[in-house]
Recover the amino acids of this structure.
């Protein structure tokens, strides 16, 4: 299981690339899911999209 898959299972509280703290799941669809992530230094919210593992392996 990769980092992104582990992050999707835990959601809130996971830190990505030292800068972004996952806050909540915003939605999901056929290609993956979108999470709200707070930039830890700038204190602004961004959207982070995680591509589904199935699609990531097919490339």
């Amino acid at each position: 299981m990769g980092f992104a898959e582990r992050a999707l299972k835990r959601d809130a509280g996971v830190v990505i690339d030292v800068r972004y703290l996952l806050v909540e799941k915003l939605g999901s669809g056929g290609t993956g899911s979108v999470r709200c992530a707070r930039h830890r230094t700038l204190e602004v919210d961004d959207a982070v999209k995680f591509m589904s593992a199935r699609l990531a392996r097919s490339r």
